[in-house]
From TrEMBL, chain A:
Modified residues annotated as N6-lipoyllysine in this record: K65
Protein name: Glycine cleavage system H protein
InterPro entries per record: 2-oxoA_DH_lipoyl-BS, Biotin_lipoyl, GCV_H, GCV_H/Fam206, GCV_H_sub, Single_hybrid_motif
Function of the molecule: The glycine cleavage system catalyzes the degradation of glycine. The H protein shuttles the methylamine group of glycine from the P protein to the T protein.
Alphabetical list of SUPFAM superfamilies matching this protein: Single hybrid motif
Family affiliation: Belongs to the GcvH family.
Entries under PANTHER family matching the protein: GLYCINE CLEAVAGE SYSTEM H PROTEIN, GLYCINE CLEAVAGE SYSTEM H PROTEIN-RELATED
Alphabetical keyword list: Lipoyl
Gene designation: gcvH
CDD domains: GCS_H (cd06848)
One Pfam family in the UniProt entry: GCV_H
Domain Lipoyl-binding: 24-106
Amino acid sequence: MSNIPSELKYVASHEWIRVEGDGIVTIGVTDHAQDLLGDVVFVELPDVGAELAGGDEAGVVESVKAASDVYAPLSGEIVAINEELEDSPELVNSDPYGDGWFFKIKLSDTAELNDLLDAEGYTGLCESEA
Amino acid sequence: MNSLVTADYRRIAKIKVSTPMHISSGLDLEHSLLDQVLKGDAQCGYALWRSKQALVVPKSATHRENFEQACDFCETQGWPVVVRSTGGELTPQHEGFINLSIVLKCKKNQLSIKDSYQVICQAIIQWLGQYGIKGSCSSIDGAFCDGEFNVVIDGKKLVGTAQRWKKITDPAVRDDGSDMALLMHAVILCDGDLPSMWNISNAFYKTCNLKPFIVDNKHIALSQLLNDHGESFVLKMLDSLDVTLSKYIDDFSDEHFK
């Protein structure tokens, strides 16, 4: 079973969300997602300042097996991206919840946080895919 | 017939373009096919198409050292370089190759990346079986765009594959947040001067200061396996694959979308 930290929130498209305070959240892809993708070789991220609605395409992850879109799980403005991924995309595989984070969003509506899955809900989703 | 586009009551898109086109047009074609799934016009479908000579690279390649120089060099040699949106590695395209793009709608938890590779690989393996060719999936060290879902014949690569996943976001099309549109692509080495393609591919890598790794004897073309070649042979194979795919995708649709 993949690692699913209890303090994070999740969406069905396998992104995780860490609430940082001040209406800012950090987004990445889960351990389960990186395992499905295989070795990540490239990550394309949105521009800082971009305004995205929840569910919008926010980037692309290329692995040795496939390319898959990354989505903004919540609405808001991109306030930071992980520039380290440009030179070290393998961080997504080695540390998906830490150095492999993708971007930070300043939320436009914090009520959207209520729609996210908790670790238990996401665990159930992953088990249904096994 | 060129550009035959149909979508029957099961909403299956079937496209065959016999005339080689510029690679950008080919990539546009497969994206229009994917759009049909994203917009709900098709549940699944396929396109068979051919490209003029070119090299196709994933986005990751654009960040390599000397990428622009490598593109310029290959272009001067008659091999324009185009970026594609599916993963994988550098892949040559040629009039002698057959491209198969399959799209389908699926749930994220319905089909894994590995499962979906089996969908496209089994279609090709089934077709090859009609010619007495026994294909299987495996990695081949020294082959272009290597991966565990190459279709290989006696240890030599005949087919390369890649795929792209997109979430279906249109509320009118999706049932829930796990609905995905999947594009799978295969390039089949049907005919052509394979060594020249590996030479230009290796030159691309070399210009990017990467070790050239593609080895000619790790590949095989259908023309070698069936002892036939030329434009008429490629067209014959294209038509034959079209017949097999048409039934395969109908059966797939009946199984998954009925």
